[in-house]
Specification:
Number of strands: 6
Structural class: mainly alpha
Number of helices: 12
Number of domains: 2
Distance between the termini: 115 Å
Largest sheet: 4 strands, mixed
Order of helices and strands: HHHEEHHHHHEHHEHEEH
Helix content: 55-70%
Shape: elongated
CATH class of the largest domain: Mainly Alpha
CATH architecture of the largest domain: Up-down Bundle
Strand content: 5-15%
Oligomer: single chain
CATH superfamily of the largest domain: VKOR domain
Strand order of the largest sheet: 4-3-5-6
Radius of gyration: 28 Å
């Protein structure tokens, strides 16, 4: 009687799965879902910016800086691909990587699930680290080169930083040394890529002088307002299409003055003209019906334009005490 023991069945074993679940930090369980949600917001934002870039060239913004930043030469890669499209692809990839393991049942396919967990975390770390480096450089350009505030750019930088932090704290990294080494490589490659892509933005429009007939020399002198407007037009990617023989093109340059006229992105459309860029003219031929024609924020304006009108078309907010 004294040695009587209750059957083992009367003492239920603890649920090991529940113990493991309780011991897993909540951030590890929820990090992928949070990352997917942030990536979804990033996809919506970059989709809007990309559509605006290809259509109106203008976005809804509480400040005038958004259009200036998003239409600057820094807003495109190699002058063709909108940076927002690259951001769209990055956010979309993050969303896919975050949810990929959830598409596999870990109970029935443990091996594949484990591989996806490992591969996707590595991919998320590399991608978000590159986004942080690239966003940091773009914040520098916005603050010191363009000198305007773009809320979309700032929010995207915050999204990138948030995603990177979630990758770091949302997973139990076993080999910290390897992680640091990978991060250094990503930082080096991203920095070199960013510097390489934007190295030519501030270079002269035509770096190689080609033979041809030069237009008449501009004899007027630029004032402070003319110089500021010319820099603004250059920064937002505005172009003036013209020809060396066109008197109205000459009149347009005279309004700016010699120094400011040299800053403007002038496109010589005649093959016989000096530094001719006929390929650009042919690409815009459907909208260039005469000379000069201005392309500003995706819109085309024919004829000699007053500096006041160019300031209005381009969203220029600097001094307007133009000499002419």
């Amino acid at each position: 009687m004294g040695n009587y023991q209750l059957p083992i069945a009367n003492y239920p074993l603890p649920n090991l799965k529940m113990i493991r679940r309780r011991s897993t930090p909540w951030i590890h369980r929820s990090s992928r879902t949070i990352m997917a949600a942030i990536a979804a917001i990033g996809v919506v934002e970059t989709t809007y910016l990309t559509v605006a870039k290809f259509t109106t060239g203008s976005v809804l913004c509480p400040t005038s800086g958004c259009d200036k930043v998003l239409n600057s030469p820094y807003a495109t890669i190699l002058g063709v691909l909108p940076l927002s499209l690259l951001g769209f692809l990055a956010y979309l990839t993050i969303g896919i990587l975050a949810f990929a393991p959830k598409a596999v049942n870990p109970d029935t396919n443990k091996g594949l699930y484990s591989q996806l967990e490992n591969w996707t975390w590595q991919g998320l770390f590399v991608l978000t680290a590159a986004m942080v480096i690239f966003s940091s450089y773009l914040m520098y350009l916005m603050a010191f080169e363009i000198q305007e505030l773009c809320v979309y750019c700032v929010s995207s930088a915050l999204f990138s930083l948030s995603l990177f932090v979630l990758v770091l704290v949302g997973h139990e990294w076993e080999d910290i040394g390897q992680l640091v080494f990978t991060g250094i490589l990503v930082a080096m490659v991203s920095s070199i890529a960013a510097l390489g892509l934007y190295n030519s933005v501030n270079a002269p429009v035509s770096t190689v002088s080609t033979p041809g007939i030069a237009p008449p020399a501009v004899t007027t002198i630029s004032g402070r307002a003319e110089m500021a407007l010319a820099r603004h037009l250059r920064q937002i990617g505005a172009k003036e299409y013209g020809a060396y023989w066109c008197p109205h093109c000459y009149d347009q340059k005279m309004l700016f003055g010699k120094e400011a006229a040299g800053i403007i992105d002038y496109v010589e459309c005649d093959l016989k003209g000096k530094n001719s860029r006929t390929a650009l003219c042919q690409a815009a031929a459907a909208n260039v019906k005469g000379f000069p024609t201005w392309e500003i924020k995706g819109q085309f304006y024919s004829g000699t334009q007053s500096l006041e009108k160019l300031a209005e078309f381009s969203g220029y907010s600097g001094p307007r005490n133009f000499q002419k």
